[in-house]
Amino acid sequence: MSQLTACAFLIGLVIFTCGAAADSDGGAQLIGVKSIANNLIVKGMDVTVQYDIYNVGDKAAMNVQLEEDGFPIDYFAVRSGFQHVRWTRLPPGANVSHTLILTPLQTFVFNASHAVMRYKVSDEATGSTVGYTTSPGEIAVIETADYDRQFSAHAMDWLTFGMMTTPSIIIPFLLWYASVRKYSNLASHSSRKNN
Amino acid sequence: MSKKLTSKQEDILLQDYSRSLSTKSNALFYGNGLIVSAVPIMLFWRIHMMDPYQNAPLFAAVVLGCSYLIAFAYKNVKFVVKHRISQVREDAISQELTQEAPKGKKVSKKERDDMLLWRKNEVADYEATTFSIFFNNVIFLLLVVFLSFFLLRSSSNLVNYLLSMLLSSGFVALLSTGSGAGKR
């Protein structure tokens, strides 16, 4: 089912990109897919954004530039990767990938829209062609506390709880047991003596 | 009892059979109850994500209520267990007194009986107190964890905290009122 959806999605993309790049005549044609690798996007935790650019044309795309301006600095901090990337050449049938790692700074619902691709359809082309990647759509950044509540193992918290409860159980037990042992030994000693 | 008891023996026996506790025992029980009922706040704060500042009045009220119920359970279990211990330890305490008695010094039977009664009461009180605290703490904490993380896990934080704490301390208090409480 997921394979069928992916195929339909790619076919749709090809049609979309062909339409977008209709002005290019037998040159390079780029398809860009922008995807968010995380299932859950949590405030303060890394989000991986992946860009895959495919050249489905019959010529190499030159001076390919990927421009990502969809993550405002007020809402996201860049942890790793670049928002503007350039490849000198993308041969026909080839693809390139780029990864950007961000950290959401706030809890909000965000519309992740497309990134822009600029490239020359051939070596001889004078002007640049503009294409767009897909848009992941609306993403909700959830609170760290909500995430922790559902998914965290809380090993440290349980350990702390164990350390806090142990004295209130172990100390009375040891005191009681020491007394029981002492008097049990005395009783057995006394009964041996009587026998 | 045909033989007339001295006032010291009477005092010890009264102390032994009475449910009233000394100030020291009361402080020990309420202090322990307070600690044990306050510790689960850490679970509700860190794991159930209940804000401690926002819920401070609720936490305080529940902790006080639970402390009272747990202290009540400590007292009842102690009372029941103390008599059993007192009966079981008689021979051992007598043996201990014989060992401790200074050699060459004659101790009258009355003095020895007084000493035995006093020591028996002391040992039984100590063992019953420590056992009661241990027994009730284990049951209370296990119940809180079971209720809040298994039975009431899908309910809201507020309901979860209220029910798991009050049901656990209530159960411990109820259990202590049975005649078989703390049976060993």
Summarize the entry for a quick read:
The complex is a heterodimer of chains A (195) and B (184). Chain A is an alpha+beta fold and 195 residues long.
Please, could you describe this protein's structure?
- Chain A is an alpha+beta fold.
- Chain A folds into two domains: 2-150, Immunoglobulins (Immunoglobulin-like, Sandwich), CATH 2.60.40; 153-194.
- Chain A has helices at 2-20, 144-151, 155-194, and strands at 30-36, 41-42, 47-55, 61-67, 76-80, 84-90, 95-104, 109-112, 116-120, 129-132, 137-142.
- A four-stranded antiparallel sheet of chain A has the order 1-3-7-5. A four-stranded antiparallel sheet of chain A has the order 6-4-9-10, with no helix packed on it.
- In chain A, a hairpin with an 8-residue loop joins strand 9 and strand 10 (129-132).
- The longest helix of chain A is centred in the C-terminal third of the chain and has 40 residues, at 155-194.
- The radius of gyration of chain A is 31 Å and the shape is rod-shaped.
- With 184 residues, chain B is mostly helical.
- Chain B has a domain at 23-85 and 130-177.
- In chain B, 77% of the residues lie in helices and 0% in strands.
- Chain B is built from seven helices and no strands.
- Chain B has helices at 7-17, 23-38, 40-46, 56-88, 90-100, 109-151, 157-177.
- The two termini of chain B are 29 Å apart.
- Chains A and B meet through helix 2 and helix 3 of A and helix 2, helix 3, helix 5 and helix 6 of B.
